Amino acid sequence: MFDTRELGRRPGALKRVSRSVVAPKGLGIEVIGVREGATIELDLRLESVMEGVLVTGTARAPLMGECVRCLEPLERELEVDFQEMYSYPDADDRSREADTGDDAEEEDMLFLEADLFDLEPVLRDAVVLALPLQPVCREDCPGLCADCGARLADDPDHHHESADIRWAALQGLAETMRDGEKDNAPRERGDDSQEK
């Protein structure tokens, strides 16, 4: 929670805040995110406006995850900007009098509670939206071998002899026939050629 009492309600009043906070649980997506308990550095600008307090800020946090191609662990530094309006509690009454008719917009409004505001939902949205959906350890990561799972970056010449899957059934049939021919092969073939 951040305190806005020093700012007052005079429009145009400005306050800058720098703070380190502990990352909450679940700040990320399945393959990458900010580890719970990691330090997030915040630089905030609080500005008093007619309706409330406009919060503009930058967050810097360490990311941990894994490459989606080769599954190797990776670490990155994330820097994300955000801006959010926290309305005064009585601003809700004024907006009802004005009756804008947009109920969805009213539901999305954030309010100051006893001159305090909770930055976590705004920070969570900003961080999660800034995360790469397909994080890779490097742009040209070749990934893993589809046949054996070997990491291709460790062995660039890695390959397997493979036949076209469409011919696999015929290849199996050909091998069966070859095995059958070996079992039934005529042993006197050399004798036939001598007789001629």
From TrEMBL:
It holds the Pfam family YceD. It comes from the Bacteria. Residues 176-196 have a biased composition (Basic and acidic residues). Residues 172-196 are annotated as: Disordered. InterPro entries: YceD (IPR003772). This is Metal-binding protein.
